[in-house]
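ok here's the first one, seq then struct tokens
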Amino acid sequence: MRPVAARPLSPPPRGLVLASPSTPWRTVGRMVGLVILLYLIATPVTFIFVGLLDGNFDLQPGPANPWMSLTGALCSLPLVALVLYLRRPRLTHVILAEAANGGQHVHQLPGETVLQTPWPTLLRHHLIRRSPPLDLPRPGPLAALFLGAVGVMVFVLVPLGAVQAVGAQVIVFLLLLIPAWLIGFSIPVFIWWAVSSEVLKLQTDRRQGEAMLIAGMLSTFPALVINSLLFPMGLAAVGITGLAMTEALTVTVSAPVGEEICKFLAVLSLRGMIDSSRRGLQVGFTVGLGFAMLENLQYILLSLVAEPTVAAFSYGFTSVIRGIGSIPGHAVWTGLGGYALGCMQAKHAHHAEKAASSSATWGLFNAQTGQALATATSAWVVQREAWTRRVASSFGPAPPRVVVPALLVGIAGHALWNGSTVVLDAWLADASAVTQFVAFVGWMVFLVVLVLQAGRRLFAAALMDAESLRGTF
């Protein structure tokens, strides 16, 4: 029998279930690669604005330097194109052959392929956007990798400082530098991302999760222009030109205000995903993690650019403090705005949910055994009650449910973190090194505890909102 003509594409049937191999570490690799690309893009993009606003670097408006802007644009374009290529939508071609009276035994498939069936079948085929569930490694292995890498780096660099052969120092240091840098700036972000995903238990596909993280990374671009160009130019315009004062005001005023506004605008750009306070918290928290990831890349890199013994202490201290404090701090401060936006969206979301772009459901399976796996949203089901009890047992005032107060609280928290360290440095300028170290570590511990407790209270509010909607809390 001659093959029949190929049938046209049709919408996928409801209830179609598709499988995707579980590759949790692939998400980690993709995001690390993207953040490095965006970091490389940030500098030429900044020079575009410098060339337009302050071509001679004197912090006074003008003159414009079009060649600087053009060079920045030309240097950034190939990297931007690469990012867009990596983020292109992926499609899956699904072909269904169903037994039916009056069907065909032979079907022409796209290309030169022919399908022959032993019984009469009707053939349908569909193009479906590939959107498997967000698949992240478990927090335990991630934490073990992070702590192990930091420990190895510290204990190798300390004795390396006593090595007299400069060549041996350079070789060993370079061999350790790249993996230590990659692990130090990225893994803490994935730990908090995995924990927040497990606590919130929301159905999220990989493309949505990556979009949240990337939006946070992109929000660093306008924040960088504000902190490094616009705010110093504004200070110079009112007569504040001292380097120390400019740096202090940038850290305590420009960074909290500019960065939190930029991050919230990134959350706002994803408002189409937000239909509840819990989803708003997820989006805001993940956007904050994306911002912290790109920012952390710079801090960890700078901590390693020193003599080995100094780098050992600087790298270990910076990695741990930022991993348990600054990174969740950014996430919590932005999560406040996301949570409030979710509360607002939920009030207007009594209409039916928007229809999904595809009625296909994706699941994960083990590529080696072929067994179906629990998705990221259904993993740790046994521990769900324990997580809810632990988070909901937190104390403190309820987070604001209105956007502007929530944004102001986030700015205040960020300003407290940055400003208090600046004040502490100035206050202890004449104290002994031991006093400075003890005071600084003690204050950082207090700030970390404050951030973590604020995060617990925020997640408790979102979980209680979800439970109250189901009438079971």
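and now the second one, same deal
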Amino acid sequence: MILSFKNSIISLVMVFTVGLCLWSIFDAKYPAEVSTDTTHHPDAFMENVVATIINKEGNPSLKVESPKMIHYAEDDTTYIETPHITLYRQSPEPWHINSAYAKATQGLDKIYFWDNVVIHHVSDSANPTTTMTTTTLTVFPNKQIAQTDKNVTVTQPSAILHGLGMLANLNEGTVQLLSKAQGEYVPNAS
């Protein structure tokens, strides 16, 4: 009798603990910047993410790092907090993209970055070190294309360019400013 009462109490405590854990997971509050749609409910989330996507040849094509990612099945959208995306290309040096927030749609076919977007790659045999800053950016990783209709600053060792709107072929390393382009020559300090 005492043994079954003790087992019942232990079982009750375990059920209560599991229930409390589940409640805390489902009651978690997500930042308003991530999603303001109250009809959306996440189906999965990950923390401390480091994921590398491998292409058909077995080489890395994309690396995603984030402290938190939240996925919504209704529209196959993933919200990414403070993402660091590494986009590998034919050149030996990849592009690195950072921002405060990002949203990936259609898997990782389209990634929309916003709030303090910085795109950077170090020099290689074909291209100089390049850093671009803007407020929003849409990247198509499979096509190696990045674009924005916002103000952009492109910084290279000897030049600073400003423009409104940008279309970049990240694989080739070409950047086209779409309007109001202005440049400054910055001589190297030797």
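notes on #2: The longest strand covers residues 60-72. Residues 18-22, 28-33 have pLDDT under 50 and may be disordered.
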